[in-house]
Amino acid sequence: MKTLRCLNIFFVSMLVLGITIVLCVSRSSSSTPKIEIADITNISNTFYFPEQEGDPSWNSDGTKIIFSKGCDYTAGGPGSVIALMNADGSDIIDNITNHHEPFGNHQMPDFNKDDNEIVFTALHVNGSRLMVMDWNGTEATNLRQIASSTDGRQIKHPNWHPNEDKILYSCEYVYTIDPETGIVEQLPLDEQYGYDRARWSPDGTKIVFLMNDRSLPYPNKHIYVMNYTMDPNEINLIQLTSGEELYFEPSWSPDGEYIVFNIRDLSKNVTEDLWIIKADGSEEPYRILDMDAASYPQWHPNGDAIAFFRFNSNSDPWWCTQDIYIANLGKKVCSYPNEEIASLSMSDSPKFVAVAPDGEHVYITHWFLNMISVIRTSDNTLVDTISVGEHPSGMAFGPIGEFLYVPNWGNDTVSIIRTSDNTVVGSFGVDSHPEHIAITPNGEYAYTTSGYFTKSVSVIRLSDNTKVASVTVGEAPLDLLITPNGDYVYVSNRNGHSVSVIQTSDNTVIDTIQVGDIPFGLAITPDTKYVYVVKHHANTVSVIDTGTNTVIDTIVIEEGNLSMYPVVTPDGKYVFVNDAENDSVSVIQISTNTVVDTIPIGDYPYGMDIAPDGNKIYVANHHGHTVSVIACRNSLPIVDAGENITISSEEICSTSIIGTASDEDFEDNLAYRWTEGETVLLDWTSVGSSGECPLNLCTTSLGIGPHTLSLEVTDGENVCSDNMILAIDNSSPNAAPSGAGVYEIGFEVILGGDVSDFDGDMLIYKWMEGGDILCEGNITANAGGEFVTLEECKVTNLSLGIHNIILQVDDGINNPVQVEITVEITDSTAPTLALESNLTILWPPNHNMVEIVIEANAQDISGLPVTLMAEVLSNEPADGLGDGDMTPDWTDPTIDQNTGLITLQLRAERSGSGEGRKYTITIIATDPSNNSSSADVIIIVPHDKKKK
């Protein structure tokens, strides 16, 4: 039902440059994701500059990274060494090799699978060496050389085989070496110069490597995959890349399906991108990161991350300053509020915003209504309005938020609001037209600016609301802030193009900093190191170093803006500046003092404030009569209830519907439930570790018919749902006939068996052979599917042979169910004969032929005709002495198979010297089953009459 999913990638800088990149991947039904940069943010530095950190490689469980470190290649210097750190950049061990030598640069380390041995290369002036050392988790021992190159070639990129019995490396060609025996084998590739960066596949059966493209200028290489074999006929070489770009550092995904690599465009010097390609070459490569100088990507063992290093192309030399980064796949981190998630309608012209210290309410001034609106932040609901003086301006809370102080520009007062009940409990006067107010951290004093008409800042003692000082600053003071330690007040002088610095101990101006260009709002970083000054018409922000009170940087905001008031995130990483003309908020990264994002919001944003936890920013859109809420948008859960299915009622308890849920916000704990309309089928429970949301239908009471089931998923803030249609059909009956087997013909065949119907329907059943109904009846089934026994069906008229007998059961709803059994009728009984002859004595023996007629009277139990045969024998020879020597003595019997009459002629003669002649006529009857029986008819010719 769903074809799109979102997979976010969060880049954590672990070293110098401190760049975080959030990428969004929309993965379609294809296995190839499309990745786009969505955001760039700051992460604090971990290592020190300048220095080189490169060649990252994971240990087996991905908790540590081993890498090369250092860039001192002077004679006698340490060169580079092998270092180790946790995957989050902590607990760095700078030199685990503990082995320095001139030009002994240790690089390209790799852990074995058990993490107890490390292989690396040691470069020296005449070549390089392949080194192995033992590692016990805290220190290295038994450092040993297992291979070397002394002809100027470099041994590169050693890589342990998964079973640890071989190490793969390149040295213009590709080799394996047994670390115990030192036996080296060269892979059977073409004898050409320039193989590099070979690595085993996760199962050790394949190798990826770079090979020079001889058709292109050096050093163009392409990525190849081959079977690991020493038989050149079995390598199955696959070229994965083509073109004139420079391809580098291929690395396998843990499942062996993909290879990540980087491309350097020759036209961009050291600019390199990270790409992914299917290891079998079945798909085009696709870019996952467009980032200057990203190199040597190495996939995390569980596939969740890619480590890589990045050259700093702005450094000199660029090749000696590189930093390690980790790209955490599948994790989205919103480092700052980055999207308008709500727009709250206001009565009229909201202007300034103040968020209470507890973050529970937001107070908004309405310049023309002389009123304060109070918004509850939990649900963005207006909960109160407070009438104050004329033209309320920039507010400030006391240290614990008990009171809110509101300058009233139109009547030169400050209203005091008790926040517990939003009641104005007092006011005090200040110098002319107060615009902004700031409260000292101890809550003892308030400082207010006095607009266009004076050059003063009023100082109010809050214990008795008395003005105790008026400090002269620059022309038209506007905004002000008090440093977190309470020692200084910074004041923007819009017409004086400067910032005044007041020392609170004696309320004297100790410095005036020229910033130019109509300074407006001010913001200070939590560590008090920097003050950011927004220049209203110049579209720039000046950065003041508070240690020297000098401008150290100027940040250009988008042209055409009217920049207003800034806020700094509590973590000190970002400054937000509202841009009134462009209806947006610009995001400045403090570590680089660059604009890294622009967030569209309402019409003419004016004042804004940030929640204490830094998760939300509230902006008053003065012309739009709205307040924008900017936050890390909580990504909606992605819900898939699954495809529509149809089952029978008896399948309910053997069926589970498996919906799925996912969320780009990796920290969200998802819960799900299944409903049908208002009925909860399964109440809230946690989504499975793989996103599964099963519903066991056996726990429901769903009946026959269609059901629209809803899978609802919540991330704690939003609830998303998806529907599927479950159709439950009346179950077909089941039949289990009995009576199959072999029966003797003439005996009863007893058919029986059991039938069931899950729904307890009335069942009509029939025993049938072909179109003939043998028996029929009806029976009421037991609900739930328990079998009931049919009455016996006795059949006696089945003929010989195989009978396919069907038990048909019909519930009147579904198609009748038919189950066939086989009954075989056999005949093992021989036919019977009841012979009757027209004569039994031939007399006188006159040598005449006498006609004999025999009735066979043959019968078979099958009722089928039998086949008769007859043969004649005599106890005297046909030409015996004394019989007259007449032949033949009988004719062949003639058999009428239809009537059973057997006719023949016998000669009435006998031997005078014998005792008389006896003819034996044997009748044989055979039935269709080849059962036979026989009987004899005896006809005599007596010797003399007295013996008849």
Short overview:
This protein is mainly β. The chain is built from no helices and 77 strands.
Description:
The structure is a single chain. This protein is an all-beta fold and 948 residues long. A six-stranded antiparallel sheet has the order 3-2-1-25-24-23, with no helix packed on it. Strands 55-61-60-57-58 form a five-stranded mixed sheet, with no helix packed on it. It starts with a strand and ends in a 6-residue tail after the last strand.
**Unreliable runs:** 1-50
**Which structural class fits the helix and strand makeup?**
mainly beta
Radius of gyration: 51 Å
Query: Helicity range of the residues?
Result: under 10%
Q: What characteristic shape results from the CA principal axes?
A: elongated
Beta-strand portion reads: over 45%
What's the number of helices? 0
Distance from N terminus to C terminus (CA atoms, Å) equals 106 Å
Largest sheet: 6 strands, antiparallel
Descriptive key words:
mainly beta, 0% helix, single chain, 948 residues
Topology (elements, then pairings):
Blueprint lengths: L4 E9 L5 E9 L5 E10 L10 E6 L5 E9 L6 E8 L18 E7 L5 E8 L2 E9 L4 E10 L6 E5 L6 E5 L1 E5 L6 E3 L8 E6 L5 E7 L8 E7 L10 E2 L6 E7 L5 E7 L7 E7 L7 E6 L2 E6 L5 E7 L10 E8 L9 E7 L4 E6 L5 E6 L4 E6 L4 E7 L8 E2 L5 E6 L4 E6 L4 E7 L7 E3 L5 E5 L6 E6 L4 E7 L4 E6 L5 E6 L4 E6 L4 E7 L4 E6 L5 E6 L4 E6 L4 E7 L6 E6 L5 E6 L4 E6 L4 E7 L4 E6 L5 E6 L4 E6 L6 E3 L4 E4 L7 E7 L8 E6 L2 E8 L5 E5 L8 E10 L4 E11 L4 E5 L2 E4 L4 E8 L5 E8 L2 E9 L7 E2 L3 E3 L5 E10 L6 E10 L9 E2 L11 E7 L11 E8 L19 E3 L4 E7 L8 E11 L5 E11 L6
Parallel strand pairs: 55-61, 63-70
Antiparallel strand pairs: 1-2, 1-25, 2-3, 4-5, 5-6, 7-8, 8-9, 9-10, 11-12, 12-13, 13-14, 15-16, 16-17, 17-18, 19-20, 20-21, 21-22, 23-24, 24-25, 26-53, 27-28, 28-29, 29-30, 31-32, 32-33, 33-34, 35-36, 36-37, 37-38, 39-40, 40-41, 41-42, 43-44, 44-45, 45-46, 47-48, 48-49, 49-50, 51-52, 52-53, ...
